[in-house]
Design goal:
With 231 residues, the chain is an alpha/beta fold. The protein contains nine helices and eight strands. It has helices spanning 2-19, 38-46, 57-66, 84-87, 100-113, 139-147, 171-187, 205-210, 220-223; strands at residues 28-32, 51-54, 72-75, 93-97, 117-123, 152-159, 196-198, 215-218. The chain has an eight-stranded parallel sheet with strand order 7-6-5-4-3-2-1-8. Helix 6 links the parallel strand 5 and strand 6 (152-159). The chain starts with a helix and ends in an 8-residue tail after the last helix. Bound molecules: pyridoxal-5'-phosphate. Pyridoxal-5'-phosphate is lined by residues 32, 34, 55, 76-77, 160, 201-203, 217-221.
Length: 231
């Protein structure tokens, strides 16, 4: 089933890229494997997947130990400061950074690990009370402050769009995030550039790709429904 699902997702991504004149290589598919057993991850691995996303530190670390070593692990969920030490310098990308204290802790732990940690700043793009992420009005300040840390590299922005029936409803938010990336690159006299946009999940990843997503995080569409929901 997972192999079949992956084929379908891959076809969908190719078609979406073709629709908007993008190259397939511009979009990284992150297989979101939270709550799923290692056997499921191995099926995806054997079908060619090398980028996995998890949202719980302990679960991520356990799976990292059990899975092959050529995998890129992404921490996609809300990260507590006291858990940073377990993953800093070990994961390829931390998606959900939304405050300076967390970035400071990542900087400290990454320095200890002797590695610069790539991160994304999470934006609460639709101002939802239930979501983490920095309000877009506060993003510029946070970006500037986090950019000061030598062991933290802000690669781009991430958002979790609202849970909607019709993905078209989220198009405006994806546009908003892309415009924000362009703004940052144009306005801030910083020598680094943000070029990653992590946006789009099972329900809306095709619209996200049409609006410029460079990473899509697909769980249910690959692994099927989760038995229990971890938020
Ligand atoms: C669970 C999760 C996903 C994947 O959600 P699906 O709807 O199952 O594709 C993507 N991003 C984040 C941050 C998640 O927590």
């Amino acid at each position: 089933m997972i192999t079949e699902n992956l084929k379908k997702v891959e076809e969908n991504i190719k078609e979406a890229c073709a629709r908007c004149g993008r190259d397939r290589s511009e979009v990284t598919l992150i297989a979101v494997s939270k709550t799923k057993p290692v056997s499921d991850l191995m099926e995806a691995y054997n079908a060619g997947i090398r980028v996995f996303g998890e949202n719980k530190v302990q679960e991520l670390c356990e799976k990292m130990e059990q899975m092959p070593k050529d995998i890129h692990w992404h921490m996609i969920g809300h990260l507590q400061k006291n858990k940073v030490k377990y993953i800093a310098g070990k994961v390829d990308l931390i998606h959900g950074v939304d405050n300076q204290a967390l970035a400071e802790e990542i900087n400290k732990r990454a320095e200890k690990a002797g590695r610069v940690q790539d991160i994304l700043i999470e934006v609460n793009i639709a101002h939802e009370d239930t979501k983490f992420g920095v309000p877009i009005e506060e993003l510029d300040d946070l970006y500037v402050n986090i950019s000061e840390y030598p062991y933290v590299n802000v690669r781009g922005l991430m958002c979790i769009a609202p849970n909607v029936d019709d993905p078209e409803k989220n198009r405006e938010y994806f546009v908003k995030l892309r415009k924000k990336c362009v703004d940052i690159n144009n306005n801030l006299s910083n020598n680094s550039r943000v070029d990653v946009m992590s946006m789009g999940m099972t329900g809306d990843y095709l619209v996200a790709i049409e609006e410029g997503a460079t990473m899509v995080r697909v769980g249910t569409g690959i692994f099927g429904k989760r038995d229990y929901e971890i938020t």
